[in-house]
Amino acid sequence: MKFHAQKLTVTLFALLLLSAAPLYMMFAASAQAQTDKPFVVEYYYKAKWGHADEFITLFKKNHYPVLKKEIDLGRILQVHADQPRYHTTEDGRWDYRITIVFKNAAIANDNFDASEIIKQLYPDQDTYKKEEQRRFEILEAHWDLPVKDLDLSAK
Q1: What is the DSSP letter of 40?
Q2: How far apart are the C-alpha atoms of 47 and 140, rounded to whole Å?
Q3: Residues spanned by the domain of 82
Q4: Same domain, residue pair 22 and 94
Q5: Residue 66 falls within a domain, yes or no?
Q6: What three-state secondary structure class fits 124?
Q7: What's the number of domains the chain is made of?
Q8: What is the rounded CA–CA span in Å between residue 124 and residue 32?
Q9: Are 51 and 140 in contact (CB under 8 A)?
């Protein structure tokens, strides 16, 4: 009886593996398709009142060139900025939205170390660090929002 139970267990396990193989193949194909797609993240910045211009000046001086280097490396496909045309309520207010289109989700989440780029672009590290500290001191809030396309014509 023990032999039949083992044979049955092995047979059931083999059937389970065979039935799971197509699901795994579909999952792997879907995951591959996702890694080949651009990955978009919107970065929102809310500066303290009266400091929005200072914030964007420091951003353009110290952070945007780093992002442009990442474009040159092929990690990032596009960077663009928006600001609201009119004001909103204070709780919903933001001053700048920086949208970064990464090559794919893996690159967007790979903990890339930009320190070598920063050293190359900014030999005066003391000034760079002070200005970056100031850029974040004048921020009231900052949040990141990964977004995806939504096909409204799909059923």
Answers
A1: E
A2: 5
A3: 38-147
A4: no
A5: yes
A6: coil
A7: 2
A8: 42
A9: no
In DSSP notation, 53-78 reads HHHHHHIIIIIHHHHHHHHHHTSEEE
Diameter of the chain measured on Cα atoms = 83
Mean pLDDT throughout 77-92? 94
Q: Under a CB-based contact definition with an 8 Å cutoff, are residues 98 and 79 in contact?
A: yes
- Is 154 among the domain residues? no
Task: Write the DSSP symbol of residue 153.
Answer: T
Radius of gyration over alpha carbons of the chain, in Å?
A: 24
Percent of the chain surpassing pLDDT 90: 73
Indicate if 92 and 136 belong to the same structural domain. yes
**Torsion-angle region of residue 73: left (phi > 0), alpha (psi -120 to 50) or beta?**
alpha
pTM for the model: 0.76
Helices (H), the chain: 2-35, 52-58, 64-73, 105-108, 115-121, 125-137
